[in-house]
Amino acid sequence: MDTSYGVLLEAITALSAAPLATIAQRLREATLPYLGSSALVIFTEDCTGRPQKKAGDEAIISRVSIAELDHIRALLVRECPNGESWSGEALIGGEVRPVLALSSPSNALLVLADPQPVPDPAGQEAERLVRYLWTLAAERIREKVADAPPSYLIESRAASAERLRVTAELVDRHSTTLETVLAALRSPALSDDLARKSATDVAARALVALRTLSDRTTELVEEPVATAFQRLREDLKPLVNFSGIDVQFIEPPVNGRALPGEVAHAARAIVRGLVLAMMDQAGVRRIRTQWDCDGENLLVNVRDDGPGELSAATPSMARLTRRVEALDGTMSVDVMPGWGADVAVSIPLDPPARQLADVSDWKLGNRELEVLQLLASGQRNRAIAAKLHISENTVKFHLRNIYRKVGASSRTEAIAMAHSNGLR
């Protein structure tokens, strides 16, 4: 076999089996033989706990913001008729750099910073292979989120909550500062009207940008119940169109409490699984699905008119039960022979109580575990160094190893993962 084809097949195999925590690194390794880059960033709103997946230059990936990625996506949509790729200069990691942006069928976004085509006699073949590898990675992410195990769902909710908390603190602090500056600049005691007006405009724009960032982060963490249900209808549209079964949707109240992102994703996956299980029965002509929200729980009901043979003991139903229990929810199956099955699911909207879990799988050394525990308790690097009688550089060294071992790409994610495993 040609060596180049062997490398490509190995890359495809690695991507096909990659867990979410390492898929950005695997994709970067797969694309480097065809397209060099200083950093690779994946942005997918399906992963509410970790919408960014990054690999490459730490100075870039540690500073990438959702606002920057939203702007690059807008450029791609506006300037490219086919909406598939865009190249140009854009702000990424706090600096204007050359970037290549690629879309995907799942609406995920790939951004490559400082793209450098690798000399290749195949020419356009290299670009086509990069797009193929990206489409494969995006589909892998979509599938992993749809079939997320209980541990991922709990961890993702913790990461979402932690990111929202940090963003809220930043908004409060900077908003107070900017509002104070505005009050001073608007004071009649200042005589330079033009300077005051210019400074006021700049500060006002900064306030708007900061509030927009806060709203954007909240959008990723929460989803209106009506919007979440509409996405369910879109997901099930192929089944509705081609199955010959009448799938009915009872709309939830439009003013219900917003759903945490992980609850919305899990609920859609659970309903899809229930609908497929019901369709596997002979004689099913109608399936009705309904969502409601009582302010504390998402209430899901799926009912069929089949022979009443659906069993909670089948592997597919058992998997759905585990997904519900991962979110501290309940699922009951009421089977009526000759009349059909009625499945009721209740999922709390607030995160389940964290339980102490075994973190031995992370394979942390004793010192790394001490550093992680202090990090999870809210200590900064200087305080950690003082408590452990080591230098700040040593703390940073341990943190890099911790991030790699636990699969975190930032301090916030490492804290969220520690909290989800009972470390405080």
Structure description:
The chain is α+β, with helices and mostly antiparallel strands. The chain folds into four domains: 3-146, Beta-Lactamase (2-Layer Sandwich); 150-219; 225-348, Histidine kinase-like ATPase, C-terminal domain (Heat Shock Protein 90, 2-Layer Sandwich), CATH 3.30.565.10; 360-420, Arc Repressor Mutant, subunit A (Orthogonal Bundle). It has helices at residues 3-17, 23-31, 58-61, 66-79, 124-146, 150-185, 193-221, 225-242, 261-279, 315-326, 366-376, 381-388, 392-406, 411-420; strands at 35-36, 39-43, 52-56, 85-92, 95-102, 109-113, 116-117, 222-223, 246-250, 259-260, 286-293, 297-304, 330-336, 340-348. The chain has a five-stranded antiparallel β-sheet, with helices on both faces. A hairpin with a 2-residue loop joins strand 4 and strand 5. Helix 8 packs parallel to helix 9 (261-279) and helix 11 (366-376) crosses helix 13 (392-406). The longest helix has 36 residues, at 150-185. It starts with a helix and ends with a helix. The relative contact order is 0.09.
